[in-house]
Amino acid sequence: MNRHVALGLKLFVAGALVTWLxxxxxxDFGALRAFVDRPALLAADLGVLAFAIxxxxxxxxxLLSLADVRLTLRRAVQLHLAGLxxxxxxxxxxxxxxxxxxxxxxxLPAEKRPAVYLVGFIDRLMxxxxxxxxxxxxxxxxxxxxxxxxxxxxLALGVSILSGVSLGVPLIVLIVLRHTANRRExxxxxxxxxxxxxxxxxxxxxxxxxxxxxxxxxxxxxGMALFIVLTGQIASGNPALGGIAVIYPLGxxxxxIPVSYAGIGVGHVAFERLFALVGMGGGATVFNVFLIGxxxxxxxxxFPYLALRRSAPPPTEAEARSQQVVGYDASx
Length: 332
Known about the structure:
This protein is mostly helical. 72% of the residues lie in helices and 0% in strands.
């Protein structure tokens, strides 16, 4: 399917779902006034975002070491901010992940570039796995209460199935790659061979992967804390912290599904349904406030990007397409 048609469909789905939620009275954009009425809430939102930006840059910088690439923290933060800006304002294949990777890859020999692109995929994968791991940890911490409470029982079952698939499959792939890591083959001359070689090297660096996963979990923990605070301020009903702690990672995982642009609409509906499972309302509104609060400030990433443009031209379409060899859509 033509990428422009796919993007158009995603935007249509997002717009249709948001419009339906607004007209049904489920989604209230007026709740955004909370940031104006409660300056402390706005400060908390910006503080969590700043923390997430630093952790995200640190995680990407750490993963780049798998490709034997070293970046200063300042450079990593600059590129990460530029990437966030692109993720917000330019839907399509030239997303933030592509921008970051291309600016790094341009300065490397051709044989090292596929490894940098592979890091982009691993970074995305770490984001998903950390959400699953967080949901699993909260479920286990709640113990039998998750299985004896009607609303939470469905969540616990979903977390169990999702954890088995999401954590089990990458583990099997990692084991296979580790067992073939020392296999001798012809020099990796093609992009595919270079990717395979890079993946095998990556599989042997478990401490680095584990550290990156912990950073990703820390990032999502800060987001979950903010989400819980927003829930207490906005949602109707009596918010149970344990239930919201499970709901957050599950709801955020739905935004990864490539059905709508950036998970807009899909995430709103998912949180509304998840809140209903624990006898609460306002899930779509809470998610909307959270999403806008964590997205709009990313527009300031234009300033790091303009600084990058002064030193090098922006990525071309050909450079963006080269990212597709690792099998992910940077606009997701």
